[in-house]
Structures are given as structure tokens and as C-alpha cells.
Amino acid sequence: MLRTCSEISLNSKEQLFGTSPRVHFWILIEYSLKWEEYVLKSINISQSVKSKISELLQSNDYSRLQWIKKNKKGDNNICFYLVESTESNKIVYKKTLNRYEDILGLNSDNIATHSCRSETPLILVCTHDSYDACCGKLGNHLYEEICDESIFDVWKTTHLGGHRFAPNILFLPDGIYYGRVNKSNFDILKSGFISNRMTFENLRGRSYYDKYSQAADYYLRLYTGISDINSLAFNSSEKFDERTTCITFMIKPNRVCYRVIIEELPGSLEICPGCSDRQKKLVSQFRLLEIEKTTD
To answer: Where are the domains of the chain?
Structure first.
């Protein structure tokens, strides 16, 4: 009998693609103590700092907060990241703080500076066990296996979204979500990222797209065989009706365009959204209707 949300999702053959939350700006804050289910409410920092964090989140559309930590760390400083993940800009800014009250003095002018830029890509592994048991068990196991990667700075993180796809990882600053990751396929994902390629099998989506564009991106890559991360660029989106959307991508550098028409199938699959959820829920899946080359 299947008992966990990740087992139920996998057995149901739920699609991974088109499931990434839409995020353009990430705020990552180190907090090494235990994470409760809702960290910002329960964390032991002052209300003024909490309010400042909320203010920073509201300063940009599609922003998301992640708490991060490591098993081993050589100092007591607090790492603070602002990461921009958009199609035009993929940048990591890093600040080292002495205490959480230092956040009160942060703003976009003193974070997003050349001196704060970091060239080290990040990997976030969802290990938020108080939010979902699959993330806690499977995510922590994966983190232990990959935390010593030399090319990336690997962090444990709070809920990334879609815990039924655990283990979930996120490559930043590119904003690429992968689900159902294990050590074996992680090595494939890592090699792909280093060579600027995306891997289709475990792909949930690029977080700077909405769910329709994520699904269309996936289908077009399968159709064309293009795995290069930056070769496909979003051009336009048109909703034909409640279920059907047309997304146009341009292939660089030859500027050939493709129209991808997809259909969302609402409530087509019944799954368990999380291990603690007693009731299943209906989720949408996507179906490819048409791909055609255009002169647009």
C-alpha cells in the first residue's frame, strides 16, 4: 500500500513539468535552528526584522523567501542572498551579516551591487520535515549525498513547493526546478547544468515562467531536442479559452519562432498533495495540441 505523497504522485504518473512556482526574485536567509512549519511566524527574531523581510519581499513582484542552512559551517555569520532569476538577468548577490538586525539596513541599493555579486551557483534542497515528511526524509538523504559538491554552494532549504515531488532541488540563479531527484540522476542534472543544458526527465520548470509557459517549454524542447538553457526565449502568450493557451518561443541565435498550443486538463488526476493531508485533491495535467514553426 502506498503511504506517502511522493509514492502516490509517482505511482499516478503525475507530470512534473508545469509545476514550478513562479518566482523572479529570491531572498535566502540562513537560520540554523529548527524550522517549524511556518518559519517566519515562529522564528526567534524581532518583529521589526520580520517586517523588514516582508518589506523586501514586497519590493519586487514574484518574490519568494527561503530559509537556508548547512549541517556544517565554519563561522557564526549569517548568509543573506538576493537572487534575480529572470530570462534577461540571472544574478546572485550575497551579504554576510553579523546578526539578524543587520537586515534592517538592507535595501536594493546596497544589496544589488557589483561588490555583492557572487559567481558561485547555488543548489537548494528542500529538507523541510515539519512541512512534509517526504521532504524531511528524502530531501535530507539527498542533501547528505551532495552537500560536498565543490562547484556549487549547496544548502538545505524550507518548502520549495510541490513536496509530493520530493526530493526537490532548485538551481540558482537560473531558477530551474527539478523533482524526484536521487544521487544517480543528480549527477546527470549537475553535468547538464555545468554545460549549460537542461535535463527533461526530472524537469519541473523554469521558475520565471508561468505554468503554461513551463509546459510549453518542456514540450518544445522534447520536439526540437534543444537542451541548451538559454537557446529558447519566451516571445508571447495568448489564451484561446479557459483550457487552451498558445505560447510562442524564439530559438536563438537564428531567431526561428515556434508556436506551442497546449491544453490544460483541470481535475484530470487525483493525488495526495502532502503526507499530512487526509484527503486527496484533483490537479491539472497538460496536453500538447500543436507545434508549428512560424515567421513571427
So the answer is: 5-194, 211-294
